[in-house]
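Copper chaperone PCu(A)C: structure tokens wanted.
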Amino acid sequence: MKSPLRRRTAIAALLLAPALTACGFSAQTDQVYQPAVGVNDRSGDVDILNALIVSGEDGSGTFAGTLVNKDTTQDATLDTVSGPGITASRTTVDVPAAGNARLAESGDLTLEGSSIKPGTFVELTFSFSNGQTTTMKVPVVEATGDYQDVPLPSASPTSSKSPKSSPSSSPSATATQ
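Answer:
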């Protein structure tokens, strides 16, 4: 016959084992974890992964994400990217069958619009040649840290003229010349 102490120890071990092993209590190992800032959409034939906009200045940015074509026989093309008040400089991007297009590395897709500001989300609609249309809210991040190497759009002529013209028109800049 077992002693009462052994019996109590065995019962305590059985009760504590699930808690100590993180089984069945919504532990972190049971949760989906996405360590990246960008958002994902896997609803169509072309997955849009880690989608975000890297911005060097308010009003413009580079779409940094990966397009993955799950169709193994047909190539896909990103035909248009649009959003409220957003224009894209280049919208066609080829995605080979069973392949991908890494847009953060190429800087091929740049966007402009007043809603593009670091710390905000921008609604974008992606339309593909296979008929897929995906709308998602994409975060805008600053071009620092992990994103400092993403190619940014070149400064627009209006934005590059204003900083240069303001110092020369100020009285203090004229006096020093």
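The CA atoms of residues 46 and 69 lie 4 Å apart. The two ends are 102 Å apart (CA to CA).

Cheers.
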